[in-house]
Inverse folding.
């Protein structure tokens, strides 16, 4: 079987769009979605819209049967405009503006996350009788992007919050957690379930059975500088072992974003300048940090993408180049010491692999350089 990354590289080399552009492979997107959809019996996938909210991608995932995790009324509106059933949407961020809660309820959204008594009070006021799931803090050590400082209730408060939700006549839907994005430890999900087991059992003794256990996202992708990431089968094996220790089995739901969309999409750019600075080759591209590859500079971690020539020529000399974007900002440097064929020059195209996650949604028209179009086939 041809690996997914080889399939998409072969496919994108058959198209001829003005650069820069993103290219998404339906076959890879379908493969990725179906992989998650069949990890656990009876489980459900709620794609994290924030990872890539392009309507072409959302619409295709909806065709495949995906649910969606939204983090604002704006994302909810985007989904509704695509004709997605509100019953397939969860409002998964644990801090929400009151107006966004009201808007969600008015449009048929019934499931909301919370991580504090104040948020539960807010939901009870603006979405009385809604289903709520409590997001808790779990160990996200080793993840490239950590969430525990900002989101999640301390685990010792989870039972109290669920009881408070019941007191507010909200429906106690479940518990959720997120191990951080690009998790590097295959046991993070299973450890979280093990940590939650006493709470789930204690609630059951009090007559409260949880409908779902939301194990979030964080499933890692192998970027150039993140090669030694755990494989999905290893993660799933550990999760199943932890689930079998529970006295009953809540429905498992997941919120993968990067894990579904990253490898489905590549970025194609053109070289607009080649020069030598301080003895090093610099290639300036028509896409950079601001309009395409935000994660190449963000503060918590650094994503480095595999880069390929669009028109590959076998053999020949190579060079190490610095890749920069087109803007007039000194931060617009994508990567240094990238090995490329020495022939790459102005007008040549480069392909950035695994460019589907946190690229389209994070892009900005800084200096007037437009966001790349996304094409799907």
């Amino acid at each position: 079987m041809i690996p997914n990354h080889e399939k998409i590289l072969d496919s994108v080399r058959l198209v001829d769009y003005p650069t820069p552009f993103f290219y998404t492979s339906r076959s890879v997107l379908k493969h990725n979605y179906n992989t998650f959809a069949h990890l656990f019996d009876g489980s459900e996938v709620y794609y994290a819209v924030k990872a890539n909210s392009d309507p072409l991608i959302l619409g295709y995932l909806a065709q495949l049967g995906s649910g969606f995790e939204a983090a604002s009324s704006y994302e909810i509106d985007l989904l509704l405009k695509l004709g997605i059933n509100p019953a397939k949407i969860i409002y998964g961020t644990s801090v929400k503006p009151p107006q966004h809660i009201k808007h969600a309820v008015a449009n048929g959204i019934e499931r909301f996350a919370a991580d504090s008594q104040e948020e539960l009070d807010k939901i009870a006021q603006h979405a009385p009788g809604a289903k709520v799931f409590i997001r808790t803090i779990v160990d996200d050590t080793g993840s490239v992007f950590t969430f525990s400082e900002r989101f999640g209730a301390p685990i010792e408060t989870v039972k109290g919050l669920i009881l408070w939700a019941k007191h507010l006549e909200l429906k106690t839907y479940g518990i959720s957690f997120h191990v951080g994005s690009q998790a590097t430890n295959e046991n993070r999900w299973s450890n979280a379930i093990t940590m939650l087991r006493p709470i789930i059992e204690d609630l059951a003794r009090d007559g409260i059975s949880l409908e779902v256990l939301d194990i979030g996202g964080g499933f890692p992708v192998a970027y150039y500088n993140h090669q030694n990431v755990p494989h999905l089968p290893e993660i799933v094996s550990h999760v199943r072992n932890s689930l079998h220790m529970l006295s009953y089995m809540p429905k498992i739901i997941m919120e993968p974003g990067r894990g579904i969309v990253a490898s489905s999409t590549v970025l194609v750019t053109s070289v607009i300048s080649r020069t030598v600075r301080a003895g090093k080759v610099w290639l300036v591209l028509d896409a950079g940090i601001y309009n395409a590859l935000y994660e190449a500079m963000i503060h918590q971690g650094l994503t480095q993408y595999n880069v390929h020539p669009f028109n590959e020529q076998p053999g020949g000399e190579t060079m190490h180049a610095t890749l920069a974007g087109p803007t007039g900002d000194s931060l617009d440097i994508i990567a240094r010491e990238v090995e490329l064929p020495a022939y790459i020059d102005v007008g040549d195209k480069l392909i950035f692999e695994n460019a589907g996650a946190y690229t389209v949604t994070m892009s900005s028209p800084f200096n007037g350089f437009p966001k790349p179009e996304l094409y799907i086939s």
